[in-house]
Specification:
mainly alpha
Length: 90
């Protein structure tokens, strides 16, 4: 009596492709999760640095021509505040 095949080659190929698709999708999802975690961690570190850099409030100089150094510091301070907003720091 001949042996009866339980699955045809076509069915085995479909199962193989479905399994491969599932494994690749799972690997991609895990990789995406790791990437999002790394980005969030990096943003948190930037927020800490920007908080330190902008912790002291710098007043706008009354006469920028007389004190160009203070004007430069004030522009840096404003830039740090703008970057905090771009990174979503509170």
């Amino acid at each position: 009596m001949p042996a009866v095949r339980l699955r045809s080659r076509t069915t085995a190929a479909v199962i193989s492709v479905a399994t491969l698709f599932f494994l690749l999708t799972a690997a991609g999802t895990v990789g995406y999760g790791v990437l999002i975690h790394a980005i969030h961690r990096s943003n948190s570190q930037w927020c800490i640095a920007l908080d330190e850099l902008s912790s002291i409030t710098i007043a706008k100089p009354v006469n920028p021509a007389a004190t160009p150094g203070r004007e430069a510091l004030y522009r840096q301070y404003e830039a740090y505040l703008g970057m905090r907003g771009k990174f979503g720091c509170v």
